[in-house]
Amino acid sequence: MTIADLAQIAFRLKSTDRAGWLRVGVDHPESVAAHSWGMALLALAVCPRHLDRERVLALCILHDVAEAIIGDITPHDGVSRQDKRDRERSAAATLLGAHPELWGLWEDYEQQRTDEAKLVKQLDRLDMGLQAQLYAEVAETAEFTESALRGIDDPALRALLRPRPAADRRSD
Predict the structure, then answer these.
(1) For the purposes of burial, counting CB atoms within 10 Å of the CB of 118, is it exposed (0-12), middle (13-18) or buried (19 or more)?
(2) How far is CA 16 from the centre of its chain?
(3) CA-to-CA distance for 23 and 83, rounded, in angstroms?
(4) Which residues, in sequence order, are bridge partners of residue 17?
(5) Would you say 120 and 63 are in contact if contact means Cβ atoms under 8 Å apart?
(6) Which residue, among 22, 14, 10, has the nearest Cα to 131 in the 3D structure?
């Protein structure tokens, strides 16, 4: 697959709504691409100096690329974890297999081999938790915040999910 082909397929993520937000009734939720952008922004702000920031940013961008082919599968879709993993791996191989560096990054994230991948996993949860706080005014999002907190073990990242008064959220 050429880079142009990869881009054209991956760009579908710009218009792929995050399924969890749709499930709880958020009208016009963020896209999968917007979620990856949010993670990248968080990475710029919180990436520790001892980690490779460029790698962290690349992992943020690539972590959900398979969803351009398979869609955003949630735990409520009746798909087993293994089946979801298999579908994601097949889709990622289709998209990234001809590009060993990109494939290796995706595999790193999936297998959680490096400290960078482990940080990105937590940023994935943090982005979801912060987005849940924004959507809390229009939908019941406590399950997302609770899930985010379960997936974040870094105290500094957990602290970013502290509840904010409604007046503070409106002034953003």
Answers:
(1) middle
(2) 13
(3) 21
(4) 31
(5) yes
(6) 22
Q: How confident is the model at residue 162 (pLDDT cuts 50, 70, 90)?
A: confident
Picking from 96, 109, 90, the residue whose alpha carbon sits closest to that of residue 39 is 109
Residue range(s) defining the domain that contains residue 80 = 3-170
pTM of the model as a whole: 0.92
Residues 6+ apart with CB under 8 A from 28: 17
Number of domains in the chain: 1
> Which CATH number is 110's domain given?
1.10.3210.10
H helical segments located in 2-154: 3-10, 19-23, 32-46, 53-62, 67-70, 81-96, 100-111, 115-135, 142-150
The token pair at 65 is 């690329």
Residues 6+ apart with CB under 8 A from 35: 18, 64, 127, 128, 131
The distance from CA 19 to its chain's CA centroid, rounded to whole angstroms, is 12
